[in-house]
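Input.
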Amino acid sequence: MVNSVNLKACTAGSQLSEIRAETAGGPDKVVSSEKGVSLDQAQEAAVSNSRLFEAGVSMMILDDPGQIGRVFDDYGAKLASVLTPLFADGDKACNEPDAVVFNGKPMALRDVFRSTLVSPLTSPASDQIGRKTTSGGSGEDWIRTQLSSPLMREQGGELKYADQKGGNDLLTKIKAASSFGTTVWQLLNDKTHGEKNGAALRDMLAPLGGSQSRDCVARFDEFKSRTRTERFDDAVSRMRSERPLQVDYQVDYSSAGDHGLGFGRVAVTAHDAENQPALDALLGHDPDKGQRYANINGVPRQGAPIESDPGKLPTRPFTMSRAEVENLPEAYAKLQFGDKGGFQELLKQHEFPHGTGVNRWQPYGTFATESNLRGLPSAGAQSGGTCDTLLALHTLSDEGIYNRPDIVEPATLGVAAFMNFGAYHTFAETIPIGMSVANDDDEYNPSSGTASAYGEALQKQGKLQDLPGYAAAELTAPTHTNLQHDALYDRLANLVGQHAGAGIAGHVADLSEAHKSTLEALRSEHPELRETPQIQTTRLELGQIGQNV
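Output.
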């Protein structure tokens, strides 16, 4: 029997108020609100099982990335080839003091990238994974060396890490690409200054010598129309709020976009102006020194699942709480990863002081709710950082990356492991985005209850009448995420087998079996988990439905 769940996303204007689930013969049940998604004990156990699986696979990818590392070697070298002259040549047109307008301020382009790319990776106040951990030396020189130094080498017919290279170096290259893509997005998405900023980016990309400089704005427009669409940033789907800070003064919430911090509701503004300097210091925000919220992921927050010692960053990676790690299901407790030991030992080997996304965000939109109800974890809603990294590759690539699974699939696996390591995003929030690009899809739409923007465009152009009726109906029907989540982990395991190091295939198979056997044990105890739910979400204004639940 199909397990169907009907959700009502209750909105007030464009803002999400809460999500309710229909119940058999009874009142609707609130399953999500600003406090997060509400799960029962069985549902939470299913999500916990998936957290463990994702952590295990991510560790495998970081330890033996194979072709994943080669892709980021290639694009790291491309990024180094444009950053090196950008930082060295003050006479470049893009380095005029007013070459671009960034966050409302005229700036030289190299100063923008010093703020958005160099500082997060090299500032002593940074809490980012992949950051510079040694003291002294030029941050710009360190980044250039990291990006241009190969991670991988051929060894016995396989790609292995080069001497003195490892997972942290891969994280650095992924973070640098993500920061580059974030900056490109912010510069070109400026409705007032996008054309001016585009001219500066073309000058910056000229050293690549190919079509990148000429086509960078056109590629941005393509990416915005197919992947990072308005549907992607739909507030009802992607809504999240920061967990409250542990401070003794009032902090007001505001839009993350107003501060160049992506999407959601953020706590970066003190209610009383006299407390703003202390709040800025806590968050690592000092624009005069080129620091922009460098510690925003690491500050203590109420209800954070990953604990840390007072005054120190959390060291445990991934999204699990201490209780989950200390009470592993039997199938995970039995796992052995060669000379690296068991699951807990492997986690210990990957510890790294860093700010964690899951400690920061409470996602409660339709995407997070639907993921959780299907037994998939969430950490920050559909991943803007994944989009940023893919946009970076699209910008730097010789001919773009759509319909290039040889580039996009391994890159997506690397990004997914990066995001999971930092507890920024989960596999459901990352993998489907990359697969949409690799498959050359017309549009990635994670926002249930909305129609395809591509279908709407065809309708406006009068082209739907040329299509068969079933195709026209499909293009104009409300979207749902069932197919995006369907067999996600099986598809992931196949991709890992194609692109990651050959040495981890057996371990990934063992992790898959541990996940499946743990889920089967849960289903035996909780029959309601036996069928993954097919979810249909309808959007309704609060005034359209009864207020009682």
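The two ends are 27 Å apart (CA to CA).
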